[in-house]
Amino acid sequence: MCGIVGAIAKRNVVPILIEGLKRLEYRGYDSAGVAVLNGTLQRVRSTGRVAELEKMAASQGVSGDLGIAHTRWATHGVPSERNAHPHVSGGISVVHNGIIENHEAMRQKLRALGYEFLSDTDTEVIAHLVHSHVKTGRGLFEAVRQATSELVGAYAIAVLNEKDKTHLVVARHGAPLLLGVGEGELFAASDASALVQVTQKIIYLEDGDCAELTLDGAKIFDDKGNATNRAVHVSQLTPDAVELGSYRHYMQKEIFEQPMAVANTLEMVTSAQTLSANLFGVEAENILSQINQMLILACGTSYHAGVVARYWLEGIAGVPCNVEIASEYRYRDSVPDPRCLVITISQSGETADTLAALQYAKSLGHKHSLSICNVPESALLRASDLRFLTRAGPEIGVASTKAFTTQLAALALLTLAVAKLKGRLTAEREAQLLKELRHLPSALTTVLHVEPQVKMWAEKFTNMQHALFLGRGIHWPIAMEGALKLKEISYIHAEAYAAGELKHGPLALVDKTMPVVAIAPNDALLEKLKSNLQEVRARGGELHVLADQDTRIMPAEGLHVIRMPDHAGMLSPILHTIPLQLLAYHAALERGNDVDKPRNLAKSVTVE
Ligand code: G6P
């Protein structure tokens, strides 16, 4: 987590650093800070948001043409000014994203050298360590290289030295960092969106790279210390892709962008009459025809996409499929199978647990991997043999919305590709399912029209402490996603249950203060679900039901119904996600919460 930005230019870089931080706030917002050189080192830190830092920097007249900046998600040490980055030692100033695992041992060593620690962070170790090497006569670049060779853990860092106005040094290992190339100026940032205002020319640093940034350009050295060239990519990001436009919140914008995001993700099949497995990479046909089972690894919302996919992959493609939470899988003994395809799903492509789970699977002997991810050039995509880039566009709201529905669209394509290779899809069925996929964006637009009704539900949820979400079959993971959305942004405690499990415990909680949301599409489980709903009504529970047109579930006292369009078959889970996102959004709004930046959370979780 945490976002970092650095800049060296012949103009005041403070506005560039601050703008970059605003775009990185999704990575954490416990505190923010900036340090620039203007003769001497000027540092401002705030426990407020970046907007607060901006005011402080302006009122203190902070400016300089070389600087670093940081937005923090607290790991070591509470959110406070003294724990906010940049951390300083002598004239050395450092911003850091990641975790230094050997920070305690390093602290002892540095204390013995006379360094005094002013914060509880692991990062301060880096500042003192670099300083200790500069003191022995090394230049900043050499000092940073020496320091990083002594660090264990993950880091992306940007470092400056008060005594040297000519360069910045950056390094990365296990956390993302890229360079932005301007006209006679250079930038560094955790992701390309932070630099969209100044350049679209991006150099992605590789793990282990260390670079010296001057006005003349970047000198990059790889993990073995050899000078190296890294390609310059032209980012497709445009400034308006990360602007709010007419929306009040990014989450709202991203919910309403879903028809377009899904259309973009499915673009490769919109004009095709048949599906090619090579959508997933040139080796896909070869690999997918060899595999005999799948293992999906992911976290959070991406995990829920994986659980939906399991129903598709087993039900339609006939391939056995397990889905595991990445942080659990990576620490348990399991039995590898060289014919298993390991699928990782991640919006960011940098979630530490998901990356580690993939590495662990490989170390156990799994041979084939596929990643579904929304960030080009992310660590996860690069670590996999096969890959699919969802095209949701940048997702800024911490609660994932369009990333989820585009992941589902990608997983639907994967299901069809595998089913076809396994001989389980007739040409007629393939054509029919492709037609349904092509119709999906317009079906999503139709479902968005339920917003006024969902808003009325949300108003009633505002004063509730708890809520229960029920679904059956493939809609059970959608109920899980609905509950996750509600708790993460409205702070209402919400649980999801497979409706058949209700009578085995959670029914004891049901009374009129516990609203129950049920997903009731017209599928094979509808009649079973209706019985579960009766169990709730009989205990006085208020039911809020998403029902397909033809389910014959009628509104009544204590039974509120929102009519969904006709049953969407395989794609029904994607459509049912929309009202649940809107419910969480409006409940959070009613409660006056910061919808895009819920307390204690961050979008990109690069720590265990
Ligand atoms: C965080 C985010 C969630 C996300 C999860 C996994 O918790 O707040 O929205 O689902 O990380 O992230 P990933 O980038 O791997 O999908």
Structural features, described:
The protein has 608 residues and is of the alpha/beta class. The protein folds into three domains: 3-242, Aminohydrolase, N-terminal nucleophile (Ntn) domain (Glutamine Phosphoribosylpyrophosphate, subunit 1, domain 1, 4-Layer Sandwich), CATH 3.60.20; 250-425, Glucose-6-phosphate isomerase like protein, domain 1 (Rossmann fold, 3-Layer(aba) Sandwich); 449-590, Rossmann fold (3-Layer(aba) Sandwich). The chain has 19 helices and 25 strands. The strands form four sheets. An eight-stranded antiparallel β-sheet has the order 3-2-4-1-10-9-11-15, with helices on one face. Strands 5-6-7-8-12-13-14 form a seven-stranded antiparallel β-sheet. A five-stranded parallel β-sheet has the order 17-16-18-19-20, sandwiched between helices. α17 (476-490) packs parallel to α19. The longest helix has 22 residues, at 427-448. The chain is globular. The site of 6-O-phosphono-alpha-D-glucopyranose (G6P) has 14 residues, from α10.
